[in-house]
Amino acid sequence: GRLEAVTQQMGYHPQYLDSFLKTQHYLMHMDGPLPFDCRHYIAIMAAARHQCRYLVNLHVLQFLRAGGDPQWLRGLEFIPPKLRNLNEINKILAHRPWLITKEHIEKLLKISEWSWSLAELVHAVVLLAHCHALASFVFGCGCEQDEGLGGRGSLKPLSLGNQCFCEATAGNSYSQELLRINRKRSLDSCMELDSLRERMQRIHVETEGRDEMRLLQQDREEGEGQGAEVGVQGGTEHCSDPSAGLSPLADTDGVVTGATNLACYMQDPDFGYQDFARRDEDQTQVFRVQDYSWEDHGFSLVNRLYSDIGHLLDEKFRMVDGLQSSAMAKRQGCEPSVFKRGIWNYIHCMFGIRYDDYDYAEVNQLLERMLKVYIKTVTCYPEKTNSEMFDRFWKQFKHSEKVHVNLLILEARMQAELLYALQAITQYMI
């Protein structure tokens, strides 16, 4: 029940790790609107959208330790309708968050035997966004491969010893509190899990091994980058999406192999990310941060409906923004804040979120094409990340800088999902 690989990678940035652990612990183990078993099942549903076995297996064990019904692990058909009804916004938030509307919120909140309360729904939305974004980090930093699941193991993690999730922050201000508060209920502690593993194996028919994800030939990879650049004519932005035309390195048929085990945890598995710039004309228009922002709108709403989580999320957003990246920015010939903002705004642009005060021509000036391909893949199709990306796209970066970029991806993606979901909730409330 550990997140060793994640904490080892985040350990390159200890202050951020401390902030992340506080949020993770609060979401999963502290008092809140949702029962503990449901929290972990929602995490399973979220991680399954990206075929992230690392997180699915972790939360399966934690679900059982929380007293969850083993029958639920047979798939969505065996869970209460109230949880199953969450599948639609899980799917939308994971892949095309701009499609979520107040009607989706109303459907979940309508008066019936299986209705959600506003507080429960906000907790669930934060959990979904957290786990979707964490799946991006897991794949982006090679944690999925490092767990001995037949993967690639391309990155060497920071050596922190054989520590459990809570102990990884030893020496930090919050570590002792994590170990002290509700220790029995903390599902990430180092208690014996053999009996639970046996229970899990009885439920799952196929839990061992996974196929390697196949790669396209290099000529195909290069071809996928056509149309990737932002066009600038006369100094003005020409293309509405600097990510248009960038595709991940995937299988030749577009299918990720070895995902059948997790199919029981999701519906409509073919639903995936589509370039926002290619949306139909009648779909949601560009999301302008000037109209709805985390600082002015999202923070207060989420904090009111799910006490204190807004402060924890805000601290995490600020922490990743404050991480040092002087060497990374220097190689790009710009200030650290400029480089980080370019990455952040590029990620938000892929989800249709725009900043009126930002010149998107800077994205092509700051980010090389190979780095943009990597960022887009980890953000939008994390399950298609492959080991060659680290070798081919990251030669100029130190390991800690690679982790830093992946932390920016994690937080920018999570905030993007939250902005769309919280805006829809706000519109429903109005």
Automatic annotation (TrEMBL):
Reactions catalysed, as given in the entry: a hydroperoxide + L-cysteinyl-[protein] = S-hydroxy-L-cysteinyl-[protein] + an alcohol
Protein name as catalogued: SESN3 protein
Family according to the record: Belongs to the sestrin family.
Gene3D superfamilies in alphabetical order: AhpD-like
Record region (Disordered): 221-240
Pfam entry (one): PA26
Subcellular location: Cytoplasm
Residue ranges, compositional bias (Gly residues): 225-234
GO molecular function ontology, one term from the record: oxidoreductase activity, acting on peroxide as acceptor
Superkingdom, taxonomy of origin: Eukaryota
Cytoplasm recorded as keyword: yes
GO cellular component term of the entry, any: nucleus
Primary location class: cytoplasm
GO biological process, one term: positive regulation of macroautophagy
Keywords: Cytoplasm, Oxidoreductase
Organism for this UniProt entry: Horornis vulcanius
